[in-house]
Structures are given as C-alpha cells and as structure tokens.
Amino acid sequence: MPVINRIAGYAEEMTAWRQHLHRNPELGFNCFETAAFVAERLREFGVDAVHEGIAQTGLVAVIEGKGPGGCIGLRADMDALPIDEATGADYASVVAGKMHACGHDGHTTMLLGAAKYLCETRNFSGKVALIFQPAEEEGGGGGVMVEEGIMDRFGIDQVYALHNAPGFAEGLFVTGPGPVLAAVDTFHIDVKGVGGHAANPHETKDPIPCAVSIVQAIQTIVSRNHYAQDDLVVSVTQIHAGSAENVVPDKAYVNGTVRTFDPAVQDMVEKRMEEIVAGQAASFGIEAKLRYERYYPATVNDAEKSVFAADVARDVSGDLVVYKEGREMGAEDFSYMLQARPGAFVLLGQGEGGAGLHQPDYDFNDAVAPVGASFFVRLVEQAQPVKG
Q: Helix (H, G, I), strand (E, B), or coil: what is residue 225?
C-alpha cells in the first residue's frame, strides 16, 4: 500500500506549511508562533481538542476514532537551531541567527498532514494524541512534557516519532529494536590559577598547561578504562583561555560531550573525570572543578513496536525499509517518551547527497512529507483498527 492518494493530494499545501515554518524559526521552549500556527491548522481540520501550554509552548491534540479503543501517541518536534542560514532558498529564515537546520519544520508538517487525513476519515478506534513538542535541541522538551503528565492525562499507551535522515535514499525507512541513539552527558571543567606577565611565568600559576594535561588524560578513559567492544565517545569540544600573547591568564575552561548506552559506563566516565581533574590540578598546584551533567537518556525502541513500525513502513514504502540492530551516537529527547511508553523512533530518508543535519545549508526535502504523513496514518489504522 503506497503513499495514500488523499495525502499525496495535500503535497502543495504541506509544502506551504513547511516553508512558512522554515521562514519563521524559533528556539527552545519559545515556540510561541509555531505552536499558534499548528493549533490554528488543527482547529481548521476539526480535531476534537487542542491542549496548549504544555512544557510552555508544547501542545497535544486529540482526535477521536470510531468506538472505544486505545490511544496512540504521535510526536513531532517544533524548535530550530541557533544557526545563520545559507541555503539561499526564497523561503529562507527571516530571523537572523536562527534556522530549521534539523528538519523539525518537516516533522511538524508531516504530523499536520496526518492530522488532516485522520480528521477526515477517522478510520480507527480509540483516540490519537498528536504531540507537538518544543525544545528538542536543547532543554529536553520531550522530557518536560512527560513530567507534566501527558502519558497519563491522555491515556497514551504507545508512542512513535519520525526523524528525517539526509544521506539515506529518498523515502527509505530505517528502524530497529533496542538502543538506537545514545545517552548524552556534558562536562564543564573550570581551571583556576594565578595570572601574571608572560615574561615572568614563575610568578604565576598557569592554568593552561593544567587544562592541556586534563584534555590529554581524558582521552585515556576510552582507550584504557573502557571495554573496547562497548560504545563510548568522549569528545572535548571547547578550550578557552587567555586574551593576549604577553599575559598568563588566571583561568581556563574545558567543555565536551560524552555519549554512552549503559548507565554503568556513565558512572565510570564521571568517576574517572573527577579523578583526572583532581589529580592534574594537584600536580600543577592549582584548582580545578568538574561539573558533569547528564542530559538525554539513550533512545531505546521497544522490540515488538519496532517490528510493527517496520511492517507499517513496508506498507507505505515497499522495499524501501531497513530493519536492523544498530545504534548511532547522536541523541534525542524522544528517549523520555520511550522510557514512559513502548514505541519506536524511525528514520525517514531525505535523499542522497546534499547537506547534513545541523549545517547552515541543510533543507528538508518536501517530497517526503506525504510519505511520512502516510506512515503516521497507517500506524494509527493498523494499531487501532475499527472493530466490526
């Protein structure tokens, strides 16, 4: 069963929605205009209820089916990234320093397309909860929505999300069981010394050699403290110190990310970092402090629901489905929803070539929006068929 003809007929309208959202990106929890646009479309479609103000600017819309049944949750994220756009598109961002460089404008559009069709047909039992969330890129809006009780409030018993995937064949679906994306932690290391004239370093306590030694020692966590066949990434991404060539600074800052799948590995990394920072600081006779922050947990697909999602994808895309056990080191706050309810996170190919996610020249491929919307609809119809 290919893309639904009726949804294919929405293509021009969906492109207009997506490009409007692309022109007007918003960050984090501040998705006020985006949420208002989404709510207005949903009310036009005739959803049964729109519940706004969840996680500040998130919303959940409910569509009632034919007769009693469960409630399936479908999620789309709405926020953009703090990037200056370089696509040159005539619908490029009109907001300096903000752009939809991760395709959340497309995710929102696909769920809106599904909502329109489901309101027209209602060929399912029970209810559908359409989850539009802010702050996926930073802030964990998905987790906040869970904390504010959406799963219990709306009786959601299973939940699904789509994410676009540049570099994969157009219309290709990819999913699988178990962990699919990593947990993400952030570390901050503040090194405090005594500054002075660079011509008299003996009168200072230079924080730079200490910071450099900490960075070098951190690299041994992966190579010497961790079993090589388990996935772990420790990346230092920022080092800041100094302001002039003739001044020894009084402080330095080191920052980076840790990606794991096992809480025990997270514990080991945090412990080793504490030991390394304390030990290196002592060896240089200065102060250093570690702040280790745990953010999104690993994104773990339910085995049964991931098989179901792949079967539905085959109904929409035919052979353009990859079902595999495999995981990536990226992270997603949909993980919080999968901790609360069984479900699956599914990738949708955007086409080979072109810019990748989080790049200033990235753009969502509007041609796949009807494919994603059809997938959402078939999930609902097959998970909650009308009872005869």
A: coil
Q: Which of 139, 113, 134 is nearest to 52 (CA)?
A: 134
> At how many degrees (to 10) do helices 32-45 and 104-121 cross?
20
Beta-sheet strand order (sheet of 321-323): 49-54, 58-64, 127-133, 71-77, 158-165, 343-349, 173-175, 321-323
Question: Any idea which residue has 């998130």 for tokens?
Answer: 58
Q: How far is CA 345 from the centre of its chain?
A: 10
Asked whether the whole model's pTM tops 0.85, one would answer yes
Residue-wise pLDDT tens digits, 280-327: 999 999 999 999 999 999 999 999 999 999 999 999 999 999 999 888
Contact present, 348 and 372 (Cβ < 8 Å): yes
DSSP state of 98: -
DSSP H helical ranges for the chain: 5-8, 11-23, 32-45, 104-121, 141-147, 150-153, 207-224, 263-284, 303-317, 334-340, 369-383
* pLDDT averaged over every residue in the chain: 97
In the numeric block, which tokens belong to residue 28?
A: 């984090």
Beta bridge partners of 294: 185
3 state DSSP class of 135: coil
For 181-204, what is the mean pLDDT?
97
Tell me if residue 112 falls in helix, strand or coil.
Answer: helix
Query: Please, what are the domains in the chain?
Result: 5-178+298-383 (3.40.630.10), 183-294 (3.30.70.360)
